[in-house]
Amino acid sequence: MSPLIAPRADPAPPQHLRSLRVTLADGAQTTVHVATHELASTRVRVARLTRPEPLASWCARTGVEEALVGGFFVRPHGRPLGEVRTHGIARESTAFTAPWHKVRACLHVDRGVVSIAPRDSFCTTPRGDLLQAGPLLVRDGEQVVHAGSDPEGFSAGQSQFDSDISDGRYPRAAIAIAGEHLLAVAVDGRAHDETGLTLDELAATLLDLGAEQAMNLDGGGSTSLVCGGLLRNVPRGEFDVVIPGGRAVSTAIAFAPR
After folding, report:
1. Distance CA 183, CA 91 (A)
2. What average pLDDT does this structure show over 147-154?
3. Could you give the CA distance from residue 116 to residue 105 in angstroms, rounded to a whole number?
4. Domain limits, the chain
């Protein structure tokens, strides 16, 4: 069953930002923040931060008004986990373990064309920017993540993470292509009134928002969406423990007018 979505009151947000209250099948609720960007008029790029830094801090320091947390990273030093390419150049990162490094989902941007697909859908050394995270949530307008299924090995390969990211409701981040628009999504969680979402629920929510292609990004305390120059979600590292400004992250997806 798809989650029930209702607008959430927010004083004077940017016109391209929506904060929605999602009601789940068991009555639990959580807030989903959605920034909508027109593909034709938006420059999308992957940023590999020079050092781990909260997304809001990085945006303020570099003059970026619109950004979403990128891929996973390895603690404690913050080295990106999963393939990262900018301008066609492979950046320093820790690869996902085999065989999952060949299939985990990627965002690819080349000469204005934005794609979301499994890694093996792209050539070995693609041009442009590439960010690997996952799992893939929606493909060709169909949900492709389901409870009990692990095609990208996030449960089998959980040793590279703090926990099994595919198990349970958590704060989440995702990016989706919906027609002529790109959706940057952050989900609150880890609070009495913010339950978070499972990956299944995240995929269903994105479908309700019109997603045709979508992938999961780093979540939990790293979940961060900057829109109009401000951090719009509430990052929490533990239950009811807010991380002021958000956790330091290693990669980001930035959006700018073109």
Report:
1. 25
2. 92
3. 7
4. 4-257
